Amino acid sequence: MLEALGSPWLPCLVLIGLAAAARQVRGSWLSPGPLVALVWAVYVSACLLLTDYEVYASGIWIIALLVFSVLLGTVLSEGLDGSSRRSRPNRTIERETLRVWEDRSLRFSLLFAIVALVGCVHLLFVSLEKFSLDFSLLDLLSLGHLWSVARYSRGELEPWSVRLLIMWVYPAVLLAGISFALARTRAQKWLSVAPLIPAALIGTVFAARAGLLISLICWFSGLFAVRYRQTGGTYALFQRKIVLWMLMLMISGLVFFVAIDSVRRFEGGSLEVTTDLPRLSKYFLGAVPAFANWVHTSKEQGVTMGAYTFAGVFDLLGIKPRQIGVYEELQTLAGGEDTNIYTLFRGLIQDFTLPGASLFGVLLGIVAGAAGRSGSTNRGGNLLVLAGYYAFILFSPIISLFTYNGLILAWVVAALVLGFRAHQRPLEAAMVPSSV
What we know:
Layout: H1 2-5, H2 9-26, H3 32-50, H4 57-78, H5 95-130, H6 137-152, H7 160-166, H8 169-182, H9 186-193, H10 196-206, H11 210-230, H12 240-264, H13 277-285, H14 287-297, H15 311-317, E1 331-332, E2 338-339, H16 343-372, H17 380-395, H18 405-418
Helix pairs in contact: 2-3, 2-4, 3-4, 3-17, 4-14, 4-16, 5-7, 5-8, 5-10, 8-9, 8-11, 8-18, 10-11, 11-17, 16-17, 17-18
């Protein structure tokens, strides 16, 4: 009996139950409440099923508590009425506004993607000069390893002239996801995928996986926010086309990860693309065991008041420099692999204590629920808040989204492009989307 109570599967089953109950009430997995429960129920289950890491139940109980706090916030904001039982008068985005957003989002996403592509070319030339290399294939393949050593061993970053260009990839992909959801032709859809190309190229030069992952999350966040608003909160996430798209992206992402990991370790000679299963397991599924270990072994620490959750903002304002990797200490997982990826929740607890982190979750749920409420007025701000919530939750198994200032730029620029408020007169007809 005591062993069962100490099993991490018990809080995992609580997460699954919370997800199922929230989905039953809301009617869509994209509703703010069901989404956070779904993400964490799936991720924790995968960690327990697919790895042999020791996972302390106390860590999973805390995850369940913080997920519940977000759910509670959405209930306080939205009530317990499901989307299907709400009145529909204000549920649609006006057709004229959609057309304005469709045009603006596509044009500006392509413009920003071109800026980022210029930055990628600039990065390439700067890198070749920095490391005294030429355009040979072996030298180009060596860049990822050299940048990794420079970044993680010596703390060197790319020049500001490069950073100021490549950071525009994030507004590009966010607007591209919105454009894809609004596109009416196949050509527009393909153009809306194009901004992911500079994101992949930048990741290849740096041998960095996070940039492309963040770009994909931004793209899907914009797409899902529009879909959810267009359908009045009833969008069915698990459609056949969407599932196939996700499977294809997961396979492509796995291939990209293995390739980039091989490039990162390439020091000359011949490139060997190998599958290091312990490293793959650590990067994809090591965060929850690391967080649970930290909860189990951590000692009382001083409250850091947002220095980890809002690390990028603190660094930008000069309050506290953000160190590479965010956390200095590492957790050793089964098999000897070390990781400093602890999920969003470690930063929240270290910043605000566990009660403060729970309050943060409630406030997050209230804001997300208000933005996603299908009866709310039509504002671009609501759409972007909802997209920001999606991105925050989808990235939460790794770290806080506010660790990266490029993401803050993405939402600010998208707000300026789309406009916070729709000024067109409402039209009676909804623009109901086709499936992805």
